[in-house]
Amino acid sequence: MSVLGSAVIFLAATVIAVPIFKKLKLGAILGYLVAGLVIGPQVMNWVNDPETILHFAELGVVLLLFVIGLELQPEKLWGMRNQILFTGGGQLLISALAIGGILHYFMGFSLVISVVIGLSLALSSTAFAVQLMTEHRILKSPPGQQGFSILLMQDLAVIPILLTVEHLSSGDSSAAPSWWVSVLAIVTVLAVGRYLTNPFLRLVSKYGSQEVMTASALLIVMATAIGMEEAGLSMGMGAFVAGMLLANSSFRHQLETEIEPFKGLLLGLFFIAIGMNLDLKILMADPVFIVSASLILVAIKALIIFSIFKLAKQRKTDAWRVALMLSQGGEFAFVVMAQAANNGLVPVQISSEVTLIVGISMALTAPLVILHSLWFTSKNCPSVYDTKAEFSEPEVLIAGFGRFGQVSGRILAANNIPFTALDKDAEHIEFVKQFGNKVFYGDASRLDLLEAAGIEHAKVILVAVDDEDDALKICELVKEHFPEIKVIARARNRFTAIKLFNLGIQTNVREVFSGGLEAAFMLLQAYGVADQDAKNLIDIFEAHDKQLLENAITEGVDFDELIKISKQGRMELHHLFEEDKQNMD
Fold first, then answer.
1. Contact, 565 vs 552, CB < 8 A?
2. Is 78 exposed, middle or buried (0-12, 13-18, 19+ CB in 10 A)?
3. Are residues 561 and 499 located together in one domain of the fold?
4. pLDDT at residue 392 above 70?
5. N or C: which end of the chain has fewer CB within 10 A?
């Protein structure tokens, strides 16, 4: 079948299966797996090259780790070092020993085969676990971060595990790149990310288009991932490091927004490819053994992770839920078992059975998590994750950080009120950052970028962009998608103020009106008018002008009518000044 035909089948399978499984509350991941199983060679055989598709779809995992890296600043990762080393390392070691011990002492496998399979099955699926933690809104909570530290340690351990398999099968690891190549690759990524990536993105934002920015984001991820793989390291780890280095970049939200659609589609394709790779013939040959082994794998890993979480003083409910989310076998088990089978270290039949057990354990994970959630809900268990507020997320968003927006930003910063600012002038961002301002590159008139900037956490947004059309679009998006957020908008003139009012935004500031009043007051003083008299004149004018604007809004006037109202208002204002003068006399 042609590439286009295969793409149509993948898209159709996704569109049909995922909504059905979400409607049945079985989760999107299980929908992808079943869709892959149906269209794959085991059932309909509409797509018959699952291994190639799985290899390509692994890019979804790479993009996922890049996006996670974008949200994890280096200092935050350093703060997680104990969790990564002790929690992640402990889980990996204990799980490998437990699984390998069962295989060696109870099933009679050789020590070498038991070690290889134990290490393979100790790994969890980063894609599955992160997707589940995201769906259940736990990833950014303390138990979610501890679960992620386990996944991170497992990803770090993949290359040593592959080198161990190579060593056990051939007696040496000469095929692997020299250690200094890997070190050089890491140093290169750190240097490029620190000194070259931001200037490159500034250049693209200035002279390129939206499509070029998207291409640049993909180029950064792919180039880093491929370079790391060539150096003998994990593609996913390369992407994670690249994302982490850009976590403090002004382009963080823009990059996340550009990558997100590709990440979602490729992750879905990855899950479908796993479903396509499940060998039903092996399952039909011995269904009791395969299903039992899958359940035992999930149970062993869940119990070990639960115990580690309890030792770390996590709540029992948190510990069980995260343990179930990480209880499946991982996609790297496919790679390890394929290498072991190719090198003659593990028989092909056993390798195929292990791969199938991993796939079924993945299929079991989402339903088990959902059943666990329903059981605790039925027991009137208090909300576990929704109450975990993200205190690090600012509750103020400033769209546009030119001279107008900077005034508010400086006042907020001086009073230790955190805020996130967006501006689409990369050079201007670099300039204002010299003064300690935290500003991100991005077009705030895009809904996906507002979401990436964390608008769901905001209480109020100041729309301070210079362009009137952009300002109106931002206000319209916020009112439609986040009606509970208070909007304060910059209005270039009374026409803009009227348009904003029609959108339901009454808290607007005409950008030159207040400054113009202040200048008029100084002018009257310099002319010789007494201070109190000058203030009265300004107050009369301000009240009258605001009344004219309210009348224009109420009557819904057009441009010509507004001019007529302004002329009438000028005469009324003259009479008001005359009356005030007579009262003073």
1. yes
2. exposed
3. no
4. no
5. C
Per-residue pLDDT, 377: 54
Count of CA atoms in the C-beta half-sphere (13 A) of 491: 21
Rounded-to-integer distance, Cα 9 and Cα 276, Å: 13
**CA separation for the pair 254, 214 (Å, rounded):** 9
Q: Tell whether 520 and 499 lie within a shared domain.
A: no
SS3 label, residue 171: coil
Instruction: Name the packing angle between helices 348-378 and 111-122 (round to 10°).
Output: 40
Q: Report H helices in 379-425.
A: 403-414
Mean pLDDT throughout 87-115?
93
Strands 420-423 and 396-399: what pairing?
parallel
Which amino acid appears at position 502 of this protein? N
Looking up tokens 């190579």, which residue turns up?
Answer: 166
> What phi and psi values does residue 99 have, to the nearest 5 degrees?
-65, -45
**Cα angle 254-260-265, degrees, rounded to a multiple of 5:** 155
Q: Is the whole model's pTM more than 0.85, yes or no?
A: no
Which residue's entry shows tokens 């479903």? 275
At residue 450, what are phi and psi to the nearest 5 degrees?
Answer: -60, -40
> Residue 395: phi, psi to the nearest 5?
-105, 10
Domain that holds residue 347: 53-378
Same domain? 458 vs 583: no
Contacts (Cβ under 8 Å, ≥6 apart) of 25: 370
Q: What percent of the chain has pLDDT over 70?
A: 87
Q: Do 255 and 204 contact (CB within 8 A), yes or no?
A: no
266 and 400 co-located in one domain: no
pLDDT digits (tens, 9 = 90+) for 483-504: 899 999 988 777 788 888 888 8
The b-or-e profile of 163-172 (16+ CB within 10 A means b, else e) is ebbbebbeee
CATH of the domain at 208: 1.20.1530.20
User: Looking at residue 39, what is its pLDDT?
Assistant: 92
Domain shared by 430 and 405, yes or no: yes
β-pairing verdict for 460-463 and 486-491? parallel
Is the separation of the CB atoms in 343 and 170 below 8 Å? yes
Domain end position, chosen among 335, 350, 378:
378
Give strand ranges (E) for 275-332: none
C-alpha–C-alpha distance, residues 487 and 501, integer Å:
11
13, 103, 386, 450, 508 from 458: Cα distances, Å: 37, 52, 16, 10, 18
Tell me, what amino acid is at 244? M
Question: Burial of 450 by CB count in 10 Å (0-12 exposed, 13-18 middle, 19+ buried)?
Answer: buried
